[in-house]
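Re-run requested by the PI after the first attempt was lost when the workstation crashed. Everything re-entered from the original request form. Ligand of interest: zinc ion.
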Amino acid sequence: MFVDSHCHINFPDFANDLDGVLERMAESKVEKALCVSVNLVTFPDVLKIATRYENVYASVGIHPNEKETTSKISVDDLCLLSDHKEVVAIGETGLDYFRAEKGSLEWQKARFRAHIKCAREVQKPLIIHTRDAKEDTIKIMREEGAEKIGGVMHCFTETFEMAQEAMDMGFMISFSGIVTFKNASQVKEVASRVPLEFILIETDSPYLAPVPHRGATNEPSYVRYVAEELSKIKSTDLSKIALTTTDNFHKLFKV
Ligand SMILES: [Zn+2]
Ligand SMILES: [Zn+2]
């Protein structure tokens, strides 16, 4: 069995077919999914889905690319929102300088710090999104004591050195459908070097559908293609990839 550690099935893409998404998960032996929050406006939908389906979990957080003006949050408010049994993680949070608007990114950093403080306070692991912001991400994780709570570097596309620094702080590394792309040689190389005990798998659906569905709407049942690719890269039985990544998920999110 497989687990999709990061998806966005609350997005409009799935509004008319949620039962279908869950059915196809069952057919593909994807037994659990974590529906990840990207802002506070849609968080109630995330929570609703996690309440409705026993095998879907929720997180609460604000994506780094959500605008400063519409997405201010205090540590206390975030902690309050996380107080549901369905909410197993804080995020996605982090830094994304690739898609960010020009200008000062101090607010992005401040919001990232608030998420780490909250995660430590409520003792729920972090889901970290990082793009083109390697040094600052690691620096803030260190300064805020992220190693005291741990979490996952999701949809990882950075260097092995960064993965190692995150693993040293007790973070897992999650690979998405990108690892199946022909031109993703760096991600494949990183995946070959990260020990299986530190690996999670995810779809980040509706984005980034893996080969052979590249370009289509992604969904949690496709996470098995990520596992199959890892099985090739690591010359390890698919069953062992499935078992260990599922185990890692259970340990990290305490479900
Ligand atoms: Zn992300
Ligand atoms: Zn995401």
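Saved to the shared folder this time. Strands lie at 2-7, 30-35, 56-60, 87-96, 126-131, 151-153, 171-175, 199-201.
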